[in-house]
Design brief:
Blueprint: E1 5-14, E2 17-23, H1 24-33, H2 41-54, H3 60-73
Antiparallel strand pairs: 1-2
Helix pairs in contact: 1-2, 2-3
């Protein structure tokens, strides 16, 4: 298992609640299972980046940056 921990969590707004995404594996699961229908270019880039970080092929800070942009694109931040 590779270290996928983000240096700082990404705080997502889920309705009236918030969720802290702490690593690329958690981010990858959210992207696959419970992402809103708004799926633009950053969503697809984040899906790839988080999967690659989980495989040890991308640094976690890169995956975090792309995931954060996907969250902004989907208005979760």
């Amino acid at each position: 298992m590779h270290d996928t921990q983000f240096d700082q969590p990404v705080r997502l707004r889920q309705g009236e609640q918030f969720e802290l995404v702490k690593d690329a594996l958690q981010a990858s699961r959210l992207l696959q299972r419970s992402w809103p229908a708004t799926r633009g270019k950053w969503y697809h880039a984040a899906t790839r980046a988080c999967a690659r970080a989980s495989e040890g092929k991308t640094m976690p800070h890169v995956a975090r940056s792309v995931f954060e942009k996907a969250a902004q694109e989907s208005r979760l931040i």
